[in-house]
Amino acid sequence: MKQNLGLKLQQKLKLTLSLKHQLNIMVMPKQELLQEIIHELEENPFLEEEIHINNDYQEKLTDLSVSYGEDGEELNPLNRLTYKPSLLKTLEFQIDLEFDGKEKEIALDIIDTLDEKGYASQDSLNEIASKYNVDIETVEKIRKKLMKLEPTGLGAKSLTEFLITEYREKFGRDSIAEQIIQEDLDKIKDKEYLLKKYHIDEEALEEIISNIKALRPYPLYGYEDFEAHYVEPDIFIYEINDEDQPFEIVINEQDLPKLNLTNQYKKILNRKDINEETKKFLYEKLQKAIGLIRGIEQRRENLRKLVETLVEHQKDFLLYGKEHLKPLTLKDVSQKIGLHESTISRIVSNKFAQTPIGVLPLKAFFSNKVSKESGNISSDHVKYLIQNLIENEDPKKPLSDNDIVNLLKKEGIYVARRTVTKYREELNIPDSRKRKKGG
User: Fold this and answer.
1) Does CATH place domain 87-213 in 3.40.50.1100?
2) Do 87-213 and 379-435 have matching folds?
3) Which whole-number Å values give the CA distances from 340 to 118, 175, 219, in the listed order?
4) Where are the domains of the chain?
5) Alpha-carbon distance 227 to 230, whole Å?
6) Which residue from 113, 152, 149, 156 is spatially nearest to 132, judged by alpha carbons?
7) What pLDDT digit, counting tens, does each position of 43-67 carry?
């Protein structure tokens, strides 16, 4: 009976190991996944690379004819795989999506003053506030929005702030994890101390510690020279000549070795000359190999499902630009594809897509609603409408913010006057008195 129970517990442990590895693989960006595969091929006796030339992936890309060159020159999509923008370029693109007017200039200045690890200093922030004649709270608000761009945590003022920001994105909010980061990061190896202080069980603590260790050590880790560091997209989104389905999605798995379990693994595990300790070690290696193979399959499937949902919802954004970005939240996507919000957040994190409008992070496909009454309208679109109304106003009788509120209301968009004022100022547009020309 005891032996039977022990076997069941052991099987449960192995399943947990395999599942955890599978989940970690599922959310990795391509470059991390490649390093993990290379490492496991070297270390794991149960894995082998499938060696044969498979042209399916390349043929798929070649079939997609897209004009992407200058002067309308049609390029082979394979050539586009070599186009990799610098991280700085993708940051500028994200800032352009997220900010307008003076806010955009401040955001670019903050990026320009970061140190080599991606941290912002209080002195630099004070100087920026003085330069633009705004209070430090305004600069802080912009800095905190920057921290949500890719890479996560850029512009943090300390290691603690950075780690908490990244932890929340990757694993969700956890008050104990955040307290450990704030107070006991130097005692991360002292389990007895942490168990006693935080009154949690060992398994929960081990998960928190494992999560903290999985975080990057600073915002620009891996991107030290972000003016020269190139971003490789995880997904290619191509515009094709089809009205109903205008985009083709290709998951970038180029250069990823195809893996199989070795044929000999059962024989190795059934050998009677292997002691229990070695057998346990081999079982763990087998479960890790299984988790890696399943994780890669799951990653491909979930990434495709997620990107298809994002592209379908943000079709107009990809075709016509940022003014057409629709509201979309993690909760919306969660309900559509049946994955937990925290899983979607982890899949989205640190992944880029090459699109017809540039290389941008998957985070860029998400946008918040202006108000419940306004329905499916994003803040970016409302800013675009405000700018358009002001550009076409009578210079002798410029529109007041109240006038704009009423005009938007006629279009079924309900926003408060203070919201219009805020958006107008973010667009760096003066009020109606200063815009008035002539008599």
Assistant:
1) no
2) yes
3) 30, 20, 26
4) 9-57+235-365, 87-213, 379-435
5) 8
6) 113
7) 998 899 887 655 555 555 544 444 3
DSSP 218: S
Residue pLDDT, tens place only, 189-234:
999 999 999 999 898 999 899 999 989 999 988 776 666 667 889 9
* Topology of the domain comprising 379-435: Arc Repressor Mutant, subunit A (1.10.10)
Q: Is 412 helix (H, G, I), strand (E, B) or coil?
A: coil
400: tokens are: 């007041």
- Rounded to two decimals, the pTM is 0.69
For residues 166, 254, 248 and 378, what is the CA-based torsion angle, rounded to 10 degrees? 10
Q: Pinpoint the alpha helices (H) of 261-393.
A: 265-270, 276-313, 315-320, 330-337, 341-348, 379-391
Contact 93, 84 (CB under 8 A): no
DSSP class of 369: B
3-state helix, strand, coil in the chain (%, to 5): 60, 10, 35
Record the tokens describing residue 293, joined without a space.
């193979």
**What is the Rg, in whole angstroms, of the alpha carbon atoms belonging to the chain?**
26
